[in-house]
Every structure is written in structure tokens, then in C-alpha cells.
Amino acid sequence: MDFQNRVGSKPGSGGVLGASESNVDRRERLRKLALETIDLAKDPYFMRNHLGSYECKLCLTLHTNEGSYLAHTQGKKHQTNLARRAAKEAKETGSTVPVPTTGQTTVHVRKNLIKIGRPGYKVTKLKDPVTRQFGFLFQIQYPEVGLDIVPRHRFMSAFEQHIEPPNKAFQYVIFAAEPYETIAFKVQSKEVDKNPNLFFTHWDKDSNQFSLQFFFKVDPNTNGTNNQYFHSRLAALGLSK
Ligand SMILES: [Zn+2]
Questions:
Q1: In terms of Cα–Cα distance, which of 63, 36, 43 is closest to 52?
Q2: Residue 84, Cα to own-chain centre: how many angstroms?
Q3: Which range among 94-98, 169-173, 214-218, 219-223 shows the weakest confidence by mean pLDDT?
Q4: Residue 238 CA, ligand 1 centroid: distance in Å
């Protein structure tokens, strides 16, 4: 019974078993995390093979049980492959992508990427003391963003979106970075000043934070002094299902 020798042994001397214990804890934690975000029935990459074990069709890895597969989905390899797949699909126009497998069949994977939830964000209202323009600084946190993914933003009119009834008083600012859900903020529908001194985006790869700052053009009717100008209703909306 070698185990008894571990009792009272110095920290570190039981290193091998100690490490496997913490690996089990880590796997269990990852499995639980994955269960919260992944529905195996809808996961296009999860496959039970004819031997009764499981495969990741994306990474071509073999797993003895569902827990092992779920832990794998939280790992770097799977996340990297997801990000690559997302970038590839974004370039393609079709809604289905044929994926060759090791068998003789070709499996069509629906364009339903595994999303890992909404990113964290911070919104700061700005007022330029000189020009008296109002604006926003959006800071979106993407700590688990895929490799090679650069977050994108765009402005969308109320009539382009199909989440809410359109209201021409508002427009939306959209942020996207796989594998996060795309989010949108609702701001007033004023013309954005593209002056590069006022308008900028910045992707900080070290802190994984994407920033967008912009100001609205001064409304000649209000002379920039009307505070109503600044009454924006702001809402984060998940745009993806
Ligand atoms: Zn995988």
C-alpha cells in the first residue's frame, strides 16, 4: 500500500498523485463550466463513434466520456480551432460547410458556433470641453477571445436590426468577436463625427480589451447646449441566438 507512505510525507514528495488529483479537480471544474454553456445535443462537433467513445470532429480528438469531451471544449486547442473555423466561415458565403471526417461520410456542420456568452463591458459618457460634443467610450472585455480574432464594431440603423421594433430616434453600435456573443448598444440616432481626433478604435491584445470612442456631431439646432441631446437610452442586447 504505497498510499500509506504519503501520510505525513513532505509537501511535494507526493507530487505525482498530487498533480493528478488537481487535474481531476480542474477537469471537473471545466466540465461544469462547459455544461453551463454547451448543449451537447446541439454541439456540431460532438460525436459518439461506433466504439462507444466520443470524438471532437473539429480537433479530431478521442474522448472516453462526455466529461472528458466537455473539458476538452474549454481547452486551448479546441478554442483555437473554433476561432479558426469562425474566421474561415466568416469568409465563406454558404450556410453549410462540408467537413470531411475520417469515415466515408461527409458531415454538414450547421453554422452554429458555440458561443461562450456575452463579453464584459464598460460604457463611459463623454463630453468634449472644447467642442461641447457628447460621445461615448465603449470598452469591451474579451479575455477568452480566439487567437487571430480582432474584435469588430459597426453602426447599425434601427431599421437594420430585427431585435426590437425600429425607432428612428436610435441607432445601434455592434461589437463582435468570436467565440463571444455579438452585443449591441442603443444610442441616439445622431451623426457620428469621424474626425480622427475624436473617433478611434483600439484593440489591446495584452489586456484583451477593445475600445471604441466616438462623439456626435454638434446639432446646429441646439448649439450643443441642450442636455436632452445626451439622453440616450442605453441597452446591451444579445444579438445572436
Ligand atoms: Zn475540439
A1: 63
A2: 14
A3: 94-98
A4: 25
Phi, psi of 190 (to 5 degrees): -115, 155
Helices (H), 47-112: 66-73, 76-91
Distance (Å) from CA 60 to ligand 1 centroid:
7
**Full-model pTM:** 0.49
| Residue 180 alpha carbon to ligand 1 centre in Å | 17
Distance (Å, rounded) from C-alpha 188 to C-alpha 229?
8
For the cut 60, the answer to whether the pLDDT of residue 188 exceeds it is yes
Contact in structure between 141 and 208 (CB atoms under 8 Å): yes
Residue 228 DSSP label: G
For 153-184, what is each residue's pLDDT tens digit? Answer: 999 888 887 777 888 888 888 888 988 888 88
